[in-house]
């Protein structure tokens, strides 16, 4: 039986998360209580959620081949060829996501989101999506993209959707 396919198109970022007692005022420096980095991006988060929710036991299939599942989740996007990009791709592979639609773009940084979490769990997010990476996505759409049962796009720039629609009508 051919697996059903969900294709997610969107951003792949690295989150830079700092926990502080409060959000600093302009020009103010505060000492944080913790700091960590991790994968993020609206598209990447949705692809991981779809992959994990589409498996009966997500821990059992972790790191498995995306083609062995009943539902194949494909990610289409781009990351920079820096210290973050390859780690994001490796993490998505571990979740069983088909990463063949993710382009590693030379001489471009991966998008980052600087997230300040107040101890009261109030969030402030400053995201820097490297929009130059988005221009690569319409060229990454393989013929299998058009056979997807589901397509997800979350809060990405509208020019991106227009390019995809234009590309899709030519196939």
Number of strands: 8
In spatial order, strands of the major sheet run 5-4-1-8
Low-confidence stretches: 158-171
Q: What is the strand content?
A: 25-35%
**Radius of gyration from CA coordinates:** 17 Å
Write a compact overview of the structure shown:
The protein has 171 residues and is α/β, with parallel strands linked by helices. Helix content is 22%, strand content 33%.
Name a few traits of the molecule:
4-stranded mixed β-sheet, 4 helices, 33% strand, 4-stranded parallel β-sheet
Task: Give a structural overview.
The chain is an alpha/beta fold. Helix content is 22%, strand content 33%. It contains four helices and eight strands, in the order E-E-E-H-H-E-H-E-E-E-E-H. It has helices at residues 42-53, 58-61, 85-94, 158-169; strands spanning 4-9, 13-20, 34-40, 71-80, 98-105, 111-118, 123-128, 150-153. The strands form two sheets. Strands 5-4-1-8 form a four-stranded parallel beta sheet, covered by helices on one side. Strand 4, helix 3 (85-94) and strand 5 (98-105) form a beta-alpha-beta unit.
